[in-house]
Amino acid sequence: MTAWLDTLLFGIYPYICLAVFFIGSLIRFDRDQYTWKSDSSQLLRTGSLRWGSNLFHVGVLFLFFGHFVGMLTPHFIYEHFIGAGAKQLMAMVSGGIAGVLGIIGLSLLLHRRLTDPRIRATSKTSDIVLLWLLWIQLALGLATIPLSAQHMDGSMMMRLAEWGQRIVTFRTGGVELLAGAGWVFKAHMFLGMTVFLIFPFTRLVHVWSGFGTLAYVLRPYQLVRARRLNLPAGHNQPAAK
Ligand code: HEM
């Protein structure tokens, strides 16, 4: 891939995606709160939704946190207890299992959305585009596993992680690290960033709320105080009807 295209796709595009993701989500929340929902179709037909949605969400949530922690944790924090090669193997096995669960679930969801007349009729174009995009993204992620198996020393994984860390910490030099990465890795990265780009315009906004509900764990108790007036005994009872 020519250098200018690499710079555009992996040096500039990430910031466009992140800016649209954060600013777009804020604007959608501010202007369109009634559209801010997962848009569940459970009431229309439960059927394969139960297996499809659960398998998909278990897989994709694991992958989300796996990418977040695996890519963005600086190497020096874990190098004392796990080497790059072992970390790559762990990522390939756990990510592979989660990816297979996720793609089975997503295939069920996609099949249901395209073939069930009630679900199809109530689907927005963005619902269908999103499912296809996530399906291709999962397939590309799984396709990287045999490629990674050709170099088990973890060096490519380290370079990809370093690229991610440089992007989120606004440091230069990340793009050059991708020189030896194959097109499957690059396509997976490009589509991954595109998920952030389209996020505010789809039902994906429910992911913010999903994580937001964790705030309930830390929420202070609700205090309910009885209204007591300082009146002589017998006078602070509510009047009998
Ligand atoms: C943060 C935790 C999350 C919660 C609580 C959550 C919850 C839900 C709920 C309630 C639905 C409606 C469908 C159903 O009834 O199962 C749904 C649908 C969906 N979610 Fe999530 N979700 C979460 C994270 C994610 C993530 C990380 C992704 C992908 C990046 C995702 C992608 C989707 C998609 C594509 C659908 C539509 C599936 C369909 O075709 O019906 N969700 N989610």
General description of the model:
By secondary structure, this protein is mainly alpha-helical. The chain is built from ten helices and no strands. Helix 1 packs parallel to helix 8 and helix 4 packs antiparallel against helix 6. The N and C termini lie far apart (82 Å). The mean pLDDT is 93. The structure holds protoporphyrin IX containing FE (HEM). The site of protoporphyrin IX containing FE (HEM) has 19 residues, from helix 2, helix 4, helix 6 and helix 9.
Q: Globular, elongated, flat, extended or rod-shaped: what is the shape?
A: globular
Number of E-state strands: 0
CATH homologous superfamily title: Transmembrane di-heme cytochromes, Chain C
Q: Supply Rg.
A: 24 Å
> How many structural domains in the coordinates?
1
Give a topology summary.
Layout: H1 3-31, H2 49-72, H3 75-78, H4 84-115, H5 117-122, H6 125-148, H7 155-168, H8 183-198, H9 206-212, H10 215-218
Helix pairs in contact: 1-8, 2-4, 4-6, 6-8
The structure holds protoporphyrin IX containing FE (HEM).
Protoporphyrin IX containing FE is lined by residues 38, 40-42, 49, 53, 57, 60-61, 64, 109, 113, 130-131, 134, 206-207, 210-211.
